[in-house]
Design a protein that fits this description.
The structure is a homodimer of 144-residue chains. Chain A has 144 residues and is of the alpha+beta class. Chain A has one domain: Arc Repressor Mutant, subunit A (Orthogonal Bundle). Helices cover 33% and strands 24% of the residues of chain A. A three-stranded mixed sheet of chain A has the order 4-3-5, with no helix packed on it. A two-stranded antiparallel sheet of chain A has the order 1-2. In chain A, a hairpin with a 7-residue loop joins strand 1 and strand 2. In chain A, helix 1 packs across helix 2 and helix 3 crosses helix 4. The relative contact order of chain A is 0.13. Chains A and B meet through strand 4 and strand 5 of A and strand 4 and strand 5 of B. Strand 5 of chain A pairs antiparallel with strand 5 of chain B, so a sheet runs across the interface. Chain A binds a DNA duplex (30 and 30 nucleotides) through helix 4.
Chain lengths: 144, 144
DNA sequence: TTGATTTTGCAACCTGATTGCAGAAATCTT
DNA sequence: AAGATTTCTGCAATCAGGTTGCAAAATCAA
């Protein structure tokens, strides 16, 4: 079985388990996310999936978000980035990790092994999500 | 001395100490930030400073940012929010605190007494700023 | 097959951010 | 004080990312 087929099989399983019908386009979008080395924007996906329309990508991502297949990261670049959620059951805070945005090359890095620190909110505040992005210079840009 | 005069005096001192010329408009913007209970957007400032143009507000905030008088918060609402930096010397991570964005009423709260947790970045990454926003429901919206 | 539902592409729109430019205001020079 | 120079501000236009309406295409169900 080829790499692409394995990805599609995994994508299909995952989508079905969350109640998302695995259409051809959705499999394409999902596997693009599987192959991405870092969080990607709608524009990134548009570039690598030339056959698929921006609005369809957008709606697909919205659907994935609603069904907790992916989460979105606001890195301050002006466009939201998306990545697959690897937690077993939901996109809870425990499944998330830190991100780093390089202000020079504008790439966003995942620090997969750095979970979001626990926080004790004041009485009455209920947490449903979190966005923790460190900004600065990545190793490639450190001397710029 | 009236409240407004005290604010202006403080604003002027602060601006001068950071090398920003305290024009009339800048004093207005600065004191609006002083009086704000929570981080505000350009649109918020436009509303409360009807005499000042949006682009001037924008340029003023950009100037304040460059001179570390304020910092910007990306709360995921689509518009950047701004608040005064209260640190003595810079807008370093140590001067910053957590923010909470209510997904129902779209208000952003400051948790002034909750500093950003320390993080150990991988070798080669240099931190210059941070954006840590918790999302969920505030006490007023908790039962919605 | 036929009719209903869902998915997709295209084009248009919206909103916040950003810029070009010219007049107004402040500053400098003599 | 007057003119030259620089800085600041308002207006209008532009840009980019996000979002939606609508109709055609694809899928599903009877």
């Amino acid at each position: 079985m080829k790499k692409q087929e394995i990805l599609f099989a995994e994508a299909e399983t995952r989508m079905c388990s969350r109640g998302v019908k695995p259409t051809a386009v959705r499999l394409l979008v999902f596997s693009a996310l599987q192959m991405a080395a870092r969080p990607v924007s709608v524009a990134d996906l548009e570039t690598c999936l030339q056959t698929v329309d921006k609005s369809t990508i957008f709606r697909t991502l919205t659907l994935f978000l609603e069904h907790h297949l992916i989460h979105g990261i606001e890195d301050g670049s002006g466009s939201v980035k998306y990545e697959l959620c690897h937690g077993e059951w939901d996109c809870s805070v425990r499944d998330m990790h830190l991100h780093f945005f390089c202000e020079h090359c504008h790439r966003t890095f995942c620090f997969k092994d750095m979970p979001i620190p626990e926080v004790d909110l004041p009485e009455g505040f209920a947490m449903r999500g979190v966005n923790f992005v460190i900004k600065g210079l990545c190793p490639d840009c450190a001397d710029k």
